[in-house]
Every structure is written in C-alpha cells, then in structure tokens.
C-alpha cells in the first residue's frame, strides 16, 4: 500500500450513525463503523476519534421537555461516553485494536481523563484514542470538540463522517439537482450559509488552518481514500 497523505487524522463520528432508526445503539451500525476505523488504522496514520451523542440525547432536545440546558448538555456529554465505550469494546474485541478512551469530564472508573500529552503518547504508540464527553463544557457541540482536539493533537486532517457524502449547494434530500462540492473554502461555506458544522467549530478551523473532509461513513473505503489523499466527499479548507 502507498503511504498516506496525512500523518495524524481525527475522525469525528456523529452519534446518528451509531444509532438505529429510533436512536439508541445499533450494534450492526457500530460494527460497520468499527470496520471502517480498523481499515483506517491499517493505513498507518495516527488515528484519534471523537464520537457524538445525538443518537442518545441532544441537549437542545432535552431542554424542550423541561430539563435545564446545562443539565441537558451534561446528559449529552455522558451519552458520548456511552457511545465511546461501545465503539472501544467492538474495536478491541472484534478487531483486536489497541484503544484508549479519554474523557473531558471525570468518569475515571471507565475512562482516562483527557491529558493532551498522554493522548499524543498513545497515538505515537499507534493506539486509537477516543475522545469522549465533548469539550467538557455545556453550550458546545461535539463538532467543536473534534476541531479542538484535532488542533490540540496537531492533526493535519479532520474527517467528519456522517450519513451524507459531502457538502451540497442545497439539501440533496429535497432537491434532485443539488450539486456536491469537491472542495470549498470556509469563507464560502459561511457566505453561502452551508450547514457543515456550527459556527464555533467553523471559526476554530479557519483560525487554525485545519482542513475538514466531509464524507459518508457507510460508503465503503471512503475514509481510507480520504486518508490516502484521494478525492472523496468534500474537502473544506482555508
Ligand atoms: N455537548 C456539550 N458540550 C460539548 C459536546 C457535546 O454540551 O462539548 C452535548 C450537547 O448537548 C450535544 C450533545 O452533547 O447536543 C451530543 O453531542 P452532539 O449533538 O454534538 O452529537 P452528534 O450530533 O455529533 O451526534
């Protein structure tokens, strides 16, 4: 195999890809995601993951039922811990990979605390590091957490893996003539008001020159292709 274009990659996996139709955990989906992660690890890149929690709980949704926003957000962060542990278990037990979960909020019975230098040491030893509990703060998203961790570990690419295969000029579910961008600048994303990530995450990427590849995690081989520098999905860049 030729060598990867990137040295250290952070893969953001949204919660919805781990959940079934009614949310919760879908082990077929988790297994399919784990297969992609295992293939990505085989390329030899340093690989870190950030897992969302939207399949279990989203802060803003819980708020609608009378839970205070901050409490709802902490519930969301704990949901990402559950997802991270599920993915860790499958990666280790089925794929025999070495992994560590590091959490931004203290859950020391089940995961390490987030310590940047320790995370980097794990990556150097080719362990897959799963960052759980987002940024550890309410009012943020796991997309922002992913960008933050990517910058902290000096990743040279962040892959945002969702159920959509890139960034479109309009909603591809509603418009048959929607066009996918092969690449687009952050400035254009903001000007055209394209829904790639929340504005905090986009601002952090722009300020720190972190490129984002948006792709569909269920398209077999696309994560590996992105790591090898092949054109898949949409590359969002400075
Ligand atoms: N969350 C938070 N701070 C963070 C990251 C996440 O408060 O730094 C909460 C927030 O309520 C969010 C929930 O955790 O709705 C789940 O994360 P997210 O919605 O980003 O997950 P995804 O959409 O990727 O599944």
Automatic annotation (TrEMBL):
InterPro entries: AceGlu_kinase-like_sf, Asp/Glu/Uridylate_kinase, Uridylate_kinase, Uridylate_kinase_bac. One of its GO terms (cellular component) is cytoplasm. The keyword Transferase applies. Inhibited by UTP. UMP binds at residues 53, 73, 135-142. Pathway: Pyrimidine metabolism; CTP biosynthesis via de novo pathway; UDP from UMP (UMPK route): step 1/1. It is an enzyme of class 2 (transferase). One of its GO terms (biological process) is 'de novo' CTP biosynthetic process. Its main location: cytoplasm. It catalyses: UMP + ATP = UDP + ADP. Keywords: ATP-binding, Cytoplasm, Kinase, Nucleotide-binding, Pyrimidine biosynthesis, Transferase. PANTHER family: URIDYLATE KINASE, URIDYLATE KINASE PUMPKIN, CHLOROPLASTIC. Belongs to the UMP kinase family. Homohexamer. This is Uridylate kinase. The gene is pyrH.
